[in-house]
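Hey, quick one: can you model this chain's 3D structure?
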Amino acid sequence: MEATGPAAPNAAVACTSCRRLKMKCVGSDNPPCARCAKAGRPCVVQRARSDRAPTSLNSSSGVADTNSQRQSDQELPNPNGNNPTVPVFHPVNGNIGRSDQIARYGAEVAPTFFPGESQVPEKIQPVLPSIFSTSPYSTVVAQPNETPPDASVRGLDSQNGVKRQRIRLSTSSPGSFGHSNSNHDEPISERDMIQFIDIFRKRLMGFIPLINAEDLDDVSDLISKRKPLAHCISYVTARYVAGGEATRSMLLPTISAILQDKNFMPKGENEEWAMLQALSVLYAFRPLVNGGATSEGSNELSQRSIKAYVETYSLHVSVHRSIAGFKALVRAGDPNPISSISFKKYIYWLWLFNMSHHHSVVTGTPPSIREDATIRAAPDIIPRSVVGLRVLQILAEVELCLLWGKASCDVKGLGEWWCPPDLTDDPVDYIEQGVIGTVDAYLKTWSEKWRSSFSNEPLGPAIDFHYRFTRFCLSTYLIRNLRLGGDRLTPSQRDALNKSVIDASGFCRFFMELGPATRDAARYMGDFGFVMISFSCLFIIQACETFRSAIDGILEHLATVEESAQLMKELAITSSHIPGIQGRNILAKLHQVCETLPSSSHDSVRIEDWGAAVQHFPFSTGQGESFMIDPMWDLLDFFPEYQPLE
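Sure thing. Here's the predicted structure for all 646 residues.
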């Protein structure tokens, strides 16, 4: 898109933002360039090393000059301890775009992380959403984002959609806000950390089965001897606290330094376990980064960078071989082997397997941790009678994830959801015989084993949540080839479609069936959990819109979607919280579908409180550039199936 007026000359060196977006850069010789000035973001120009001049940032951004930051890239840490008290924050990917990767490593290597458009297969005809045809992540993220009612509060100019720059002091320091910090080595005060830890213990700890209440009893010991854990807890908790963005901004360099330390080796078992717990906090509450998800994207870490470091560090300390130490203690007759570091690391390994599986299903990517003998042996070697409910939760999830592999022995595609369906499928839609019976049998066996534990807090809600989502996902395998513009459904296809809609509706009803206290606590669930709910809601809407004559009880299913979306709106802590954004988008989509229903049906579905008219913003590379930009990675590079609309 070209601006009006005389054409400005192209810059000799494009800024990193224009280079990443593969857009023409105008004016980077005298930063900010035209595109960065319009978006209200810092304009960083990386010149050749031989003639690199001091890089300027947008003078209105309130960000200090980055000469010292680049100098720190070339200097080793001072062993005498004269380094700045707060480490300088560098993006994990070095702020390097695809063109830089090609220049450094060649076109054959760069597409691995920055796939080009030529590598994206074209979809000739859309299909009904299914994890076997499209990832829940891309399905949910691809929904147009409605204009929030408080756009002006969040820094958006309602006239032109340009993000207004926050007003802040460039010389602000951790000690310049509120209570003075007597310990200058800490990014935030001890008083604040104590309160963040208390909030975490009451509201967020239930979502991480690796941390128990006794781990947080001695707060002084936690802050003094397990600083990474205290910092990670404070950073994550601040996201759910009013005014927490300032705290997250101060903690960001410290957290980023943890994720960039490739040589960290713990001095003992306690330090090793504390570091693993700290990383589990970041992993469990990793953000779903996109332009509509956060008002200050610079305070968010890349969820892929977090995942990669957590798994790499865990393998570095050999959690995958910890089963050997645990079994040795059992054989030696140890009276309490479950208190050993070997058992804790083994449980951590099982938790990583569960998290990798869930991430794989949501993003439509191969799991980074595959099932092996150490994981399959867990239900047999860990006695259920002597472990706590939090360990039982991990074991139940392990068996639920292993169920996918068992089902794939009979139907190969069930265990390869990330593969394009047309690799092995015939072009004509068909229903595999016996799939329904196979999946239902495995699910029934698992349910009978663990159903008795569903009523026990805190095991019940977490396990039931994943059980319902698994049942829904596996049921969609039978309808992965249903074309949205295809022919009439066969009786078997109609039955399979209705079963998937019923399972999706049952999953969406999950929160409505919880008690008020448990339902209120769901607001602190990780972003990826809300992606699962949103995907199920969008599946129901798409199925009812396309195959309305084939869906039984269409009004009840749409009413369930409405209640789920409304609840997500109410669970949002702030206007930029993920459940609120996704709830508004689902309600907007539901409103459009209900307008096409017959008048009698339309009156039966209650759609209310729509607020102002919904204004959709297209995913354009020319306008609203900051919409889908991860501060460390460009998400569009990782999900090639989601392409911006022209």
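One thing worth noting: DSSP finds 25 helices and no strands in the chain.
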